[in-house]
């Protein structure tokens, strides 16, 4: 991937924003169990960071997806996983289908303010018994006059307690499970919507996550994104961007964890020398950094293929799989070298250890990625 001056300027802008507007507040937001999405997103919207690849007529920059990946890579430098996850929901999970397939009216009402940072949004797909198995969702949207009446439950929804609208996947017919789903924009102030308290998660503490209950929620049929029954296909398209973004959020944070560990083990004395004096520690950290660079190269290769119009389902699945496993491997190995200090709750390596566990679950589990890969490689029927 060849980077232009425009890529590099964007990289500097995001890195500066992370250093000045996010990292000084991470400890506070982690303790509170939430970050101020409206406040933060407005600042990002003012810099054009929430609509990098979105249409210019709705406030986006109209750039190709490689610029979104520059944003994701630099967001990986945030000192926690929850904030970049919340941002990426806004940019790469809840709005791509709306930007591509939404009516002009829908995009003016919801996409434009999301790009500006005036609205916070969530992607509402997962359910208590349907996470990676999207085809198994039970939420229904039934036509009644000019409206859809929606009933169901959504689970593990990021940004949900602050969201102004949901990009919600629901069953809208009796066709086979891959052809009966639709994406619908649902404002969260609609009567019949209620939320659980914030879910008490192992990691990603600064990201607010809740269960959503929909009881006869009535929205106009014009809130349908694209055509009825195309929701599963559109969600699969969104997943490719989501998985590339999720993989790209990893390398910078992993490298930071390795760097912190090198610094600490150089100072930590044990048995008459520093921990870093042990060749086995040096080699292990070098191996881990090599794997981080391999991941980064894979994601950029997939990105280049994606912007050239190639189907990157296989590459995106590989990148997502490798990113999740490597994030856990790096944080676990580094925590070991920190010893008891690494086991303390407020230690940054401890936070990385807790946050990294979601990488192999959210956005498609490791097993789901392997299922996709074995099918594409001709080893199974999926």
Automatic annotation (TrEMBL):
Keyword annotations of the record: Coiled coil, FAD, Flavoprotein, Oxidoreductase
Protein name: Citronellyl-CoA dehydrogenase
GO molecular function: acyl-CoA dehydrogenase activity; flavin adenine dinucleotide binding
Coiled coil: 278-305
Residues annotated as domain Acyl-CoA dehydrogenase/oxidase C-terminal: 229-375
Acyl-CoA oxidase/dehydrogenase middle domain sequence ranges: 123-217
GO-annotated cellular components: cytoplasm
Listed GO biological process terms: fatty acid beta-oxidation using acyl-CoA dehydrogenase
InterPro entries for this protein: Acyl-CoA_dehydrogenase, Acyl-CoA_DH_CS, Acyl-CoA_Oxase/DH_mid-dom, Acyl-CoA_Oxase/DH_mid-dom_sf, AcylCo_DH-like_C, AcylCo_DH/oxidase_C, AcylCoA_DH/ox_N, AcylCoA_DH/ox_N_sf
Record lineage: Bacteria, Pseudomonadati, Pseudomonadota, Alphaproteobacteria, Kordiimonadales
Gene3D superfamilies associated with the record: Acyl-CoA dehydrogenase/oxidase, N-terminal domain (1.10.540.10), Butyryl-CoA Dehydrogenase, subunit A, domain 2 (2.40.110.10), Butyryl-CoA Dehydrogenase, subunit A, domain 3 (1.20.140.10)
Assigned protein family: Belongs to the acyl-CoA dehydrogenase family.
Cofactor(s) needed: FAD
Span of domain Acyl-CoA dehydrogenase/oxidase N-terminal: 4-118
Organism field: Kordiimonas lacus
